Amino acid sequence: GKPLSPLRQHSCLEFRPVNSHVVLRTRPEYVPMVTTTPSRDQVVTLQAIPSQEDDPNLTLLCPVRVPRIYLERSQHFRRSGQLFVCYGGQQKGKAVSKQRISHWLVDAIRTAYQARGLPCPLGVRTHSTRGIAALAALANEASLTDIYRAA
């Protein structure tokens, strides 16, 4: 199989009862970019963010509710088993390329800076997010094994 980026490798979603969490499993055809990496059988479990009456905006960021809504809204035009699909044009419903995912991430970073009224750093690239995420995980005392596995 063809190597897939980390965001494209996980498409096998299993939602648990009562939206408590979602399990992402590696797609069977996934081939790691580094074949010695044990990510072929990696399972990622994301816990739901409890609904907070004092801050309803947290619901908008819930890693369980958001993919469920996304899958429901894209179901009628989806033509791929991959998690991320094109939502318009001739490619509508087909699997999204890693370049398109990269553009979406950079756009999301820029939008987040704009929403806070901050200038976006020059040269923001998708690859920058891996380093930032690893540093944030280390600062929050994640184990080196977990950081390596996520990277």
TrEMBL record:
Transmembrane segments: none
Organism: Cirrhinus mrigala (Mrigala)
Name of the protein in question: Integrase
Residue ranges that the Swiss-Prot or TrEMBL entry lists as coiled coil: none
